[in-house]
Design brief:
This protein is an alpha/beta fold. The protein is 41% helix and 17% strand.
Length: 457
Amino acid sequence: MNQKPLGERLALLTDLYQLTMAACYFDQEMFEEATFSLFIRKYPAQRGYFVAAGLAEALHYLETLRFTAEDLAYLATTGLFNSHFLNYLRGLRFTGKVQALPEGSIFFEDEPILEVSGPIIEAQLAETFIINAVSLQTLIATKASRAVQVAEGRPLVDFSLRRTQGSDAGLKVARASFLVGFLGTSNVLAGKLYGLPIFGTMAHSYITSFPHEIDAFRVFAHNFPTIATLLIDTYDNISGARHAVTVAKEMEARGQRLDFVRLDSGDMAAISKEVRRLLDDHGLNYVRILASGGFDEHKITRVLADGARIDAFAVGTKMGVSEDAPYFDIAYKLVRYADQPVMKLSTGKVTLVDKKQIWRTFDAQGAMGGDIIALRQEAMPEGTSLLQPVMANGRIIRPLPSLRESREYFKDQFARLPAAHRAIQDPTPYPVTLSSGLKELQSRVVQQIRHRELGES
């Protein structure tokens, strides 16, 4: 199937003010280099870290950004833009460069996730899409990583597609949750697009369409003996478990094995204990228990604390919409233009000036010890630099890591984050400081702005 590149299809997926600002820059012949920094201002409640995700999508957008003839014809109909500016957009390509955290990186509030440098019109037009792409996947990766943590090695599967806010979100949730350790997804298209393992069970409608529950179980086991998971709560969990035992024994006689029984309602801890006893009493210790129904890191923690005998979790709605923290205060702000550092002084939203680098220190055991946000040119011999050049002259400069490689990178990075900072409740703030050079420049620019704009001496 012929399909236009991402950026060529999505040039108009932006806010109108990006185009009106670009038209003003064009009118004033403002084409000097600008640097914009993408960061999250503060943690949502009960968060102590973030997981960077969505970089690949943002870079592919920049690399293929085009305004088509149809796009320009539509803009002309608005009556807002003159022909000279529209003609400029006709030939516009992103020609700048990007420094970014690798996908799967652990980072903290106020730290740059990425910085985009290029002619100001090009860098400005990228704002809306970059925020959209990075914010959603970072939001979900952060939420999903918490579920992985409390599951303590139990497999997790993304079941969120039916409840995510749109089809694109459903795909990105599957990708972001796999990045941080989910086993796979129920989303078949995500499996195709991203190479994810796909999993599924059955719905209650399937059970109720048969004369008897056991009939539904037998038909499914006959058709899908290698992936058979039986949903046992349609009428009664224990009755359903007994029917599952019968079908499991019939499968054994055919040289097959039932994989899972699935719980989807009720007191998960109590029911799982009873179902486990029933399975074990019939020699079915190999049949595992999968639980679904409103799970996220909080519910997983509660049921395991109650002694639940659950082997795996299907995690859906609450992870897929990041129910307890559905958005980030994420911003893409101009930090340098025409070789001059710039900043915003709004109350509660002061930005950090200029191009930056993050330096991370580690203790003797390799655990993260603290971060320093520094000016790009500053060297910190005691630390490891985190932002990496990923794009130059509008082109991705090296092959991006595969999703599975980024998954391994996250696993390594997360293991280095001390437990106090990744606690599900009341995490200890991770130490992030500013370098002496950044603090000095920040102070100087504040004074200059106050003198120039506010008339202060």
